[in-house]
Design goal:
The structure is a single chain. The protein has 318 residues and is α/β, with parallel strands linked by helices. It has helices at 19-24, 45-58, 77-89, 103-112, 127-138, 152-168, 185-197, 248-262, 268-281, and strands at 15-17, 30-35, 69-73, 92-98, 115-119, 143-144, 176-180, 202-208, 242-246, 289-294. The strands form two sheets. A six-stranded mixed beta sheet has the order 1-2-10-7-8-9. A four-stranded parallel beta sheet has the order 5-4-3-6, with helices on both faces. Helix 3 links the parallel strand 3 (69-73) and strand 4. The longest helix is centred in the middle third of the chain and has 17 residues, at 152-168.
Length: 318
């Protein structure tokens, strides 16, 4: 297939059935994972970044080739999507990233041409959002797309991601959808449409064990991308049946399991999704189908693993 640009190749990601993992864990349910990590830019955030830019252009806020500056707080993945769009459409890009986030992603974003501003993570999980607002006030001509408030975020998943899921599961019913919550865009966009198609489906949100989104409780944690310190405006909390807390150690362990048994590279937040998915599979009727999302790959998170973790067969399934 030939495309005019890398942006046209975003979407239509595959769904993989994790048969080897479920067999090893002696689960009676079927677990599926949609590999959004195979999007150009390496994550699901490429979709929303592109849609936010397009919507801003449609409203006349951005004009291609103008050299306007886009600013956005990001954990890295939305930043990569925006960097791709900025390169193709002729914008400058400033990204505000917490200083405790992946150094590898920071380096990558600089290579894309983005200017990186680090926020002080000691000030809270939303330090990058607050720093970005300060910079917008100092530079009012800059355009902040604001993924936490921008309806183009969940809209992109209503228009594309969930349509792909419904097509893939046209002959089998989904019992449960499990997703982490950062900005809340994908669990909202996908979850709303899945609830219309499968009225009895369970929608499960994943969060670090240190936090409780529904209680508006946010503490420092080490699962990048989840629980960003606020309840985002785009998040529809009404569709969430249950929040599932996950410890960093559980997520890291699951990343190693999925590599070993399925040969799939996933990041830490995806590991958290899988921990919650396995937990829910133990509660549902045998034969039920559960779906979760792979956000990105392990390459940006290798610092989470010590030398013992990379030696083969040094861990065992619980």
């Amino acid at each position: 297939m030939i495309y005019d640009s890398i942006l046209a190749a975003i979407g239509k990601t595959p769904v993989i059935k994790l048969s080897r993992l479920t067999h090893a864990l002696k689960l009676g349910c079927n677990i599926f994972i949609k590999l959004e990590s195979l999007n150009p830019g390496g994550s699901h955030k490429a979709r929303i970044a592109l849609n936010m830019v397009h919507e801003a252009e449609n409203k006349g806020v951005l004009k291609r080739g103008s050299g306007q500056t886009i600013i956005e707080p990001s954990g890295g993945n939305t930043g990569i999507g925006l960097a791709m769009a900025a390169a193709i459409y002729g914008y400058k890009l400033v990204l505000v990233i917490p200083d405790n986030y992946s150094k590898e992603k920071q380096r990558l974003l600089k290579m894309y041409g983005a200017e990186i501003v680090l926020s002080d993570s000691r000030l809270g999980n939303n330090s990058h959002g607050e720093k970005a607002m300060e910079l917008v006030l100092e530079n009012p001509e800059w355009v902040m797309l604001n993924q936490q408030r921008n309806p183009a975020n969940p809209d992109m998943h209503r228009k594309t991601t969930v349509r792909e899921i419904l097509s893939d599961f046209s002959e089998q019913e989904l019992a449960c959808f499990i997703a982490g919550i950062g900005t809340g865009g994908h669990i909202t966009g996908i979850g709303e449409i899945l609830r219309e198609s499968y009225p009895n489906i369970k929608i499960i949100g994943v969060e670090p064990e240190e936090c409780s989104l529904l209680e508006n409780k946010f503490n420092a944690h080490d699962i990048q991308g989840l629980s960003v310190g606020v309840i985002p405006d785009v998040l529809n909390t009404c569709i969430i049946d249950q929040m599932y807390p996950v410890a960093k150690s559980q997520a890291v362990d699951m990343v190693q399991k999925i590599l070993k048994y399925e040969g799939i590279s996933v990041g830490i937040s995806t590991g958290a999704n899988l921990v919650a998915t396995v937990g829910m599979a133990k509660e549902l009727v045998s034969g039920s189908n559960l779906l979760t999302i792979a956000y990105d790959s392990i390459e940006s998170y290798l610092s989470y693993f010590d030398d013992s973790a990379v030696r083969e067969n040094e861990f065992a399934l619980q």
